Amino acid sequence: MATDKKTMTLNLTEAEMLALEKLSGVKDLSKTAVLRQALRLYQLVDSRLAQGDTLYFEDKEKKNKSELMVL
Description:
Blueprint: H1 14-27, H2 31-50, E1 56-59, E2 64-67
C-alpha cells in the first residue's frame, strides 16, 4: 500500500458537515477516517454493481428486501 498522501480541499454543505461530524463522533473516528471508509465502501459497491450484482437492504422484522439503486 502506498504511503504517499495527497492533500485536498473539500467543500461541504452545512448538512453534509453535520452528518460527517455526527458519524465521526458516533464511530469515534476522525472525519478523514470516516471519509476514507466511505470511499472504500463506495468503491466496493460500485465494483460489485458493475459485475452485475444487486445490493439489498433487508428488514428482518418485516421480512422484506429493498433494492438499493445507485446512479
